[in-house]
Amino acid sequence: GIVYYDGAAPVYGVAVGQDLTCREVDGEKVVFSPKEVEILHLMAAHLNQVFTREQLLDSIWGFDFDGDSRVVDTSIKRIRKKLPEYSMLAVRSVYGVGYKIEAANA
After folding, report:
1. CA–CA separation, 53 and 6 (whole Å)
2. 85-98: pLDDT as tens digits
3. What is the pLDDT averaged over residues 52-67?
4. Is 99:50 a contact under the CB 8 Å cutoff?
5. What's the CA gap between 101 and 7, in Å, rounded?
6. Residue 64, burial from CB neighbour count under 10 angstroms (0-12, 13-18, 19+)
7. Which of 21, 78, 90, 101 could form a disulfide with 43 if both were Cys (CB 3.0 to 4.6 A apart)?
8. What is the 3 state secondary structure string of 41-98?
């Protein structure tokens, strides 16, 4: 079902609390890094909105981030591995544009 995080936007099957690393995904405990949690927060609050690598870098790592933009790809890859196959959320690639989170049954 729908789980509300921070009393605001609905996130399907993902309970997001104050602890920045441990989350409950469809009833199972999953450990996310703080940056992975920030990505989930941002993208899940805007279901189906496509985010470019640059938008995620600016929003999560900040405008002054000097590292490789592939850090976004790596973080998305880790998030995908941590979300179970049956999760109600799915991280999708939008070829040539970026990433979005959508309800898995959408």
Report:
1. 25
2. 767 778 999 999 99
3. 86
4. yes
5. 19
6. exposed
7. 101
8. HHHHCCCCCCEEHHHHHHHHHCCCCCCCCHHHHHHHHHHHHHCCCCCCEEEEEECCCE
